[in-house]
Amino acid sequence: ASIPLAEFEKIESTLSITVVGASGDLAKKKIFPALFALFYEDCLPEDFSVFGYARTKLTDEELRNMISQTLTCRIDKKENCEDKMDQFLKRCFYQSGQYNSEEHFAELDSKLKEKEAGKLSNRLFYLSIPPNIFVDVVRCASLRASSANGWTRVIVEKPFGRDAESSGDLTRSFKKYLTEDQIFRIDHYLGKELVENLSVLRFSNLVFEPLWSRNYIRNVQFIFSEDFGTEGRGGYFDNYGIIRDIMQNHLLQILALFAMETPVSLDAEDIRNEKVKVLRSMKPLLLEDVIVGQYKGHSKGGKSYPAYTDDPTVPKGSLTPTFAAAALFINNARWDGVPFLMKAGKALHTKRAEIRVQFRHVPGNLFKRNFGTDLDKATNELVLRVQPDEAIYLRINNKVPGLGMRLDRSDLNLLYRARYPREIPDAYERLLLDAIEGERRLFIRSDELDAAWALFTPLLRDLEEKKIVPELYPYGSRGPVGAHYLAAKYNVRWGDLSGEDS
Amino acid sequence: ASIPLAEFEKIESTLSITVVGASGDLAKKKIFPALFALFYEDCLPEDFSVFGYARTKLTDEELRNMISQTLTCRIDKKENCEDKMDQFLKRCFYQSGQYNSEEHFAELDSKLKEKEAGKLSNRLFYLSIPPNIFVDVVRCASLRASSANGWTRVIVEKPFGRDAESSGDLTRSFKKYLTEDQIFRIDHYLGKELVENLSVLRFSNLVFEPLWSRNYIRNVQFIFSEDFGTEGRGGYFDNYGIIRDIMQNHLLQILALFAMETPVSLDAEDIRNEKVKVLRSMKPLLLEDVIVGQYKGHSKGGKSYPAYTDDPTVPKGSLTPTFAAAALFINNARWDGVPFLMKAGKALHTKRAEIRVQFRHVPGNLFKRNFGTDLDKATNELVLRVQPDEAIYLRINNKVPGLGMRLDRSDLNLLYRARYPREIPDAYERLLLDAIEGERRLFIRSDELDAAWALFTPLLRDLEEKKIVPELYPYGSRGPVGAHYLAAKYNVRWGDLSGEDS
Amino acid sequence: ASIPLAEFEKIESTLSITVVGASGDLAKKKIFPALFALFYEDCLPEDFSVFGYARTKLTDEELRNMISQTLTCRIDKKENCEDKMDQFLKRCFYQSGQYNSEEHFAELDSKLKEKEAGKLSNRLFYLSIPPNIFVDVVRCASLRASSANGWTRVIVEKPFGRDAESSGDLTRSFKKYLTEDQIFRIDHYLGKELVENLSVLRFSNLVFEPLWSRNYIRNVQFIFSEDFGTEGRGGYFDNYGIIRDIMQNHLLQILALFAMETPVSLDAEDIRNEKVKVLRSMKPLLLEDVIVGQYKGHSKGGKSYPAYTDDPTVPKGSLTPTFAAAALFINNARWDGVPFLMKAGKALHTKRAEIRVQFRHVPGNLFKRNFGTDLDKATNELVLRVQPDEAIYLRINNKVPGLGMRLDRSDLNLLYRARYPREIPDAYERLLLDAIEGERRLFIRSDELDAAWALFTPLLRDLEEKKIVPELYPYGSRGPVGAHYLAAKYNVRWGDLSGEDS
Amino acid sequence: ASIPLAEFEKIESTLSITVVGASGDLAKKKIFPALFALFYEDCLPEDFSVFGYARTKLTDEELRNMISQTLTCRIDKKENCEDKMDQFLKRCFYQSGQYNSEEHFAELDSKLKEKEAGKLSNRLFYLSIPPNIFVDVVRCASLRASSANGWTRVIVEKPFGRDAESSGDLTRSFKKYLTEDQIFRIDHYLGKELVENLSVLRFSNLVFEPLWSRNYIRNVQFIFSEDFGTEGRGGYFDNYGIIRDIMQNHLLQILALFAMETPVSLDAEDIRNEKVKVLRSMKPLLLEDVIVGQYKGHSKGGKSYPAYTDDPTVPKGSLTPTFAAAALFINNARWDGVPFLMKAGKALHTKRAEIRVQFRHVPGNLFKRNFGTDLDKATNELVLRVQPDEAIYLRINNKVPGLGMRLDRSDLNLLYRARYPREIPDAYERLLLDAIEGERRLFIRSDELDAAWALFTPLLRDLEEKKIVPELYPYGSRGPVGAHYLAAKYNVRWGDLSGEDS
């Protein structure tokens, strides 16, 4: 680990990680593999155990079998992989129980104590379970399975409520059993490599410093698209919709990191203070600054793709948006008047997550005539591609080599894959490690969450009360055209749909 | 051609290009091939002739033979190359004569008239001859071989004198026979692709605009190095030395383009006005801001390399510098206090020409601890590599992918060869075409030349009067260490000698 | 009042202000007059009472007599003054008691209840007492005299401890009885008109925005001087010294307001968050960046002035500084490298408090020759004079009218007295009103106080442990010359000692 | 004089100033008094003579009588005034002659030679005559009365033609007899104290540097108004109109000085180079960006004021504008998009000439609610009042002293009269002295004049060809309301018509 655990802690203390909801998909695909990766990289303390907890009855061995199917070793360090896997699996244990049974958590506590063998014990609970049982588990774990002499931390993942009110309720319920310090709300997008890099880029490079404001930036775009639909798993999604699922958390978190003022230090509290300031400076979203869409069935090349409402797990006639675009504004000195556009959708033509920063036109441009009238094409653009293929590129105008004076746009380009051939760790690894180490930078504080919901709740209520019908768009298309009209309203052109990029 | 010749001109007028000094090296290696390349690219008017003029007696055929040996076709357009060469060579003619004989030039005039056949005739003279006969040729050509009804232009190449006085004399002599409009002083570095691109980069990209000043730039370096010595051809060089040969013209011209204010238009006069302003804002060079070097013999890997003074064409005990480094300052609002460093040398370890812009440190850097104490390594740098392998790259700090927070420098990179696979035209092509088309942007005006000499003349006089002994450096080395002390005096570190680049 | 009290509150609630330490000087000179002024201006709620509390035995009438001697009416509203005074005095009552007697405070509670007559009651305690009894009073008041149904607030004035440790102890003791919300730590300098105006100037005037950073500001000076010494009242002072008395609180608070980033709103918490950030960005003071002085006796014009140590209340051989100058640095992006100088002293030649902002030199100044070599005289300076005679002026260079080109410095000037002929309210009025209205902007939060002590405590410890001997300066002089050497070390020239201002 | 004449020149050379058109109004009211003031201030060389030349027959004595009636002494140096007047008058001589008679100028030459007595002679001709005889006088003076051994200079005042063509003709005619160096085209507005000060303010004060661009300036206004009409002297005016009389020269010159880039030095050629660049960067004026007006008769307070067309010297039905407002744009990097508004008129309610710089709104203003919705009132404004009562003031927002937070606009103010009690020299003094000393900074070069006419000529042609009828406005009013609509089109509010200033 980059921040080495103190020698003392390594020897004398013990860590147990309990994955609550161990038999679920996320646990299998992401959490256990991430824990193994951390172990493989020597990032876990010497004395640790991993517990699965779920209602299903399993033996330790059955859990280990289940886990072992998804473990992989880092591409670049293949050796001893099998040994490492064996060692890891030996540290995995299982406890079955109801999620609301204090008694069963007391049983878990006994098992934990057994492994801890009287040492200073730190306990991490990862809640990989549906939100309706969050509070039950927190209650039981806190009352019956807290560490007596070390720390106890709980990782939860979204959804954190459906609106300001339900989120507030959830927080208040948590706080009956946990302090703010013990709650680690994950937004796994904050663990992405390029999102982590955002602060480094901004604050350690002088060349970006003067550019990062309304004086130079014309608009900023946060774009998330998936090239598949709900595909038979729309039950959960339909209750939330794309705005709650992607925008209000992932994209808004990235926006806050992008737009925040320089923090006084890189400590978690200082960064989160600045993020809250950005969120509080924003205008709540209005219905007129949002458009929503839903994908419909589509046939292409002999293959046919289903509509969202064809998904059997989705209620007939559902109005839940599978696509949304929104224009947001930050009413502070740095960003006054700059549109921050968001766009998120399922079943689109591509899979992508990126930040696009479009710069202003050069005033009094000497070269205007060389570009013809489409000045939008001639402005600089900084693109941070979060996935796939992490990259940073800055589009600049340059002269085409050759006689005469013809201008062209080229990219000053940094493709991670080319520069850093090692595998990039999964976001879950980073986040788990941070939670173990008590580093809260990438987790969401209660007041951040409140501020985020405050922005989106009026809009969500409006959408639902007015039964706004989403604009249909074909599965695999570029989404509803309404997104263009929304952009045009603020003199923006989506950067991901220009000819060169698509 | 990018700027198409008017239809009228194509049909009714005729162009003759007379290469005076046709049997010389430059003519053979650069000028005739460049003329052929222009012809091959359809950039010459329909009706043109090329004349060689020199003292040697040659037939047209002999000239053609000589020329044909250096003609090549563009890599990416090989077809019909042979045909094109034949067509070109048929337009080449020869006239022998003395350089100071008006009579011989009158003979040339007759031949020219014959080819022009009464059409509107434009005449371009390229003076590929030693400077001591410039004025003779200008006189003869002007008095006896000027066009009667079209334009007459004369291209000259450096050296334009040895100091302010001799340069002034030369200009005054030219002006007896030619107007300013007729004189095209070539600095072939101005025809380099990346030098041409400099104005495009600066003035058509908003992202560079705020950076281009003392507020963000810590220093700028202009670096020229050759990996060979005079090698038996030091006779001309010894009379001039590296400062006159490279710095006072090539590097200073690039500096002026780099540092000038935004011109009111891209017209030649407007750009040259701004370049003159920069030169006039500079402090004349002092001896204490310059160091000079000379290469000495060196053996490496069983091979031995000669000293400069081993060159039989170089006078024994010559003090002529083959290397120089200098710190210059522009005393205006944009650049006050920013060191502009120049370095030029022969017989160094590498062949390279580049501009390096080192940006300031980030104030109050949050990430300071991540870099250790060597803050010079952590600043941003913009590099414009003029040759070899034209490229632009911007060094930025970013997070190394992986767990933990480790910073690293990467390049946002644009390598011309990768982006523009076509062959990049030689500087001479561009300059010849511009002279034909009357585009003066890349040629040096008299007042520019005066201002350039005003900066360097006191230094050159000092060096010679005080018989300053150059610091010896081994052939093939990185040059004299004095260059580092000079840089250190102004808190600069040469960017080309850091570990990563060498 | 500008922020009108809700109608409801005016009618139904009652306010009592208890001045603990009612017989002291501050109470008589500042607090009661300020309360009267608020009453006179209709800023107090309709139903209010003022209680004096002290150990002395007094009747209500005696208290009223005592108070009435210092009441004055605003210059510009003389009418009905006598009536108003009578009305005010009728609302004043007295209760004697020990400061550590819960019983006596219970008696006070009874009296308060009597006046409150069952209405919603808000209670404000003003602790005008020595710091050693702060905690006793807070305990007694909190336990026995808190409001049962309204708010209870306590105003305290410095000293808040002598160093980080004692200040932390005090805060912890307060927090046993009071929440952060109930504690109003006064720094009466924050109530000064020009200090209040500082945020308005910075954040509502675009012209100051680009200037407010290291790019334009060369240094900032915070200057406080008194033209009298301790004059027989040095007992308290000697225990603290000028650094604790003026710098660590008044000047540092003004510095924080001056230098803070734009807050997200003008709410108290947002402003105080930003102030804490500035304080946390500062380097703790080092001995080498401070000089201390002490005044010595002096005779002038037949009159003789005593030395500090001539004061009979001062211990013989006291090393307590009566003068100090310090250089502070804020290690953030805005202020990196800009010296913030402070200077505070007693028994100097003038009485003054001001902020002086010295701007950088014009780069590449065209007019350099017109100023001769003393470039320090030619830079712009913004002066905010806090007292006496509040004024803002901006020194600019302009051409002296007349033939020829001679430059001169003039002031763009705003003298409050000329522009706003009304009397400016005393700082205590503003602060009392804010405390009544729950406006915390001008009060110091615990974490601010901690950060402030963290900066000064190492220095104070050093001074005392190393028994640093202060440089002596004559009573009525401009202070020790050491202050000039300290300034010179950072290329600063004190703005208040140039010829034109003294 | 500030720039002392060389000792040599004082002793050995002689200066004669010939006022051609000596009996005219301008000569009597401005030129002779200005010459006397220069003499009084010891700014003239020791050996000088003043000649009057006109068609009227006068003796030297009659000229002296005529002159003496308008001579006055500087307020602050009254002593010896009578003596000085006598000395001055003794140096004044008269020569009558026709303006187109070479013979008469030869007679003048004889008289000049007589006074020059064989010394090195410098001759200045001031052409105080109608423009139709400019060329005649220049021809005669140049051919017959040029100095043989010193310099000969000619001062002319507008009008310099009526449009690009006639101005070009005039320049070409001048250049037949004079070099550019000998022509001194006066724009007496350039001699005004505050106009002179403009460059000092801009370039010697760092605080203005960042503000002087589109990033901070919302618009700039150049306002000229007279409170009287043509009053029986409209003959000349009617042929030109307010646009040619005031805008195309006075206001445009000031605009160019205001907006130019930093010159490389303060030398005349460098400043004039930059002014030409500004003019060349401007878009020619379109009819739609201009409104014209003409005053009509009006009765007020029992007094009646005539219409422009009531003036007997004005042709019936004249469409000549006596008022115009225009919006101009500078298409360069500094000013792209910033409206530069001009307004000039006769017979308005006030007499005034000023530059008003309105700054942008504060982005994300924290204080917005404190200003209500009229944000135009809350922005900063810099006013340079050229006449009457020279002053500079900067309007800033500040807090109104007192409890509560109420904002207000105050002025940081510099009133020349208060700061510099000495009389400010007349513009003519400065200009005459500069012409004598060869200082060309305040005179207009031929290419400047061409560029100025290029901007206005299309508009003037349009106005005349389309017979645009001016909007009538009452004598003594604030001018036509059309000026407001023009301003509103570019989101501007005239600064001189807000409540506070009128």
Report on this model:
The structure is a homotetramer of 502-residue chains. With 502 residues, chain A is of the alpha/beta class. Chain A contains 15 helices and 17 strands. A 9-stranded mixed sheet of chain A has the order 16-15-14-13-7-12-11-8-17, with helices on both faces. In chain A, strand 14 and strand 15 form a beta hairpin. In chain A, helix 10 runs parallel beside helix 14. In chain A, 49% of the residues are buried. The N terminus of chain A is likely disordered. Chains in contact: A-B, A-C, A-D, B-C, B-D, C-D.
Secondary structure blueprint with pairings:
Four copies of one chain form a homotetramer.
Chain A (H helix, E strand, L loop, with lengths): L6 H6 E8 L4 H16 L7 E7 L5 H9 L12 H10 L1 E5 L5 H15 L3 E8 L6 H12 L6 E6 L6 H14 L5 E4 L6 H12 L12 E9 L8 H26 L8 H14 L8 E7 L1 E3 L2 E3 L17 E6 L11 E6 L6 E8 L8 H4 L9 E7 L3 E9 L7 E9 H4 L7 H11 L8 H20 L5 E4 L7 H8 L13
Parallel strand pairs in A: 1-2, 1-4, 2-3, 4-5, 5-6, 7-12, 8-17
Antiparallel strand pairs in A: 7-13, 8-11, 9-10, 11-12, 13-14, 14-15, 15-16
Helix pairs in contact in A: 2-13, 5-6, 6-7, 7-14, 9-10, 9-14, 10-14
Question: In brief, what are we looking at here?
Answer:
With 502 residues, chain A is α/β, with parallel strands linked by helices. Chain A has helices spanning 7-12, 25-40, 60-68, 81-90, 102-116, 134-145, 164-177, 193-204, 234-259, 268-281, 368-371, 416-419, 427-437, 446-465, 482-489; strands at 13-20, 48-54, 92-96, 120-127, 152-157, 183-186, 217-225, 290-296, 298-300, 303-305, 323-328, 340-345, 352-359, 381-387, 391-399, 407-415, 471-474. Chain A is built from 15 helices and 17 strands.
